[in-house]
User: What shape does this take?
Amino acid sequence: MSHKLPENENELLAKVASGDTHAFAIIYNTYRKRVYTIALQYLHAEMQAEDAVQEIFLKLWRLEDNLTNIRNLEAYLLQLTKHKCLNMMRRQNLENLHIEPLHEGFEYADSDTEDQILLNDTRKIVNEGIAMLPPKQKLVYQLCRMQDLKYEKVGEKLNISPETVRSHLKLALKSLRAHVSMHTDLTILFILFKII
Assistant: This one.
């Protein structure tokens, strides 16, 4: 990062630990741009990089008395940024893995009957979950996941901010995961009964 703080780093961290918002603003203004640049390199999305910056500096603020244990603020922020971004990427990958839209035309390469039954049942459960979403969440989910539109484009279409789109999608995915997990065992039992 190689940014220089205008004051002694240890003194500045001690001031922040005692609740000095001016001292915190100095740290934020010194490192914010670099933390954002690193987050953007990992996440490849401006909005997610902004979220990461906010969460990283919020975490730094919440360290309070533990701030005085930091010996190299630049290295600490670099590590914090890296870990935060990797966690965000893992979380996004899990969301994509668990709830991918199952379009009617989608089929496995293996046309085994059991797999087809499972696919059809899973599609039915996901579609039921989508139908049960509140109208705005449902629309945002369909535009983002089924039509593969970016948050900004969906925001323009619905006349809401990209952050609101992100929030609606997050809630929709949470509801869908809960709905699918509630019905997954029933699907497996259904398939077993069909086979027997």
Observations:
- Helices lie at 9-17, 21-43, 46-62, 73-98, 113-132, 135-146, 151-158, 162-195.
- Confidence is low (pLDDT under 50) at residues 104-111, 185-196.
- The chain has eight helices and no strands.
- Residues 15 and 23 are 6 Å apart (CA to CA).
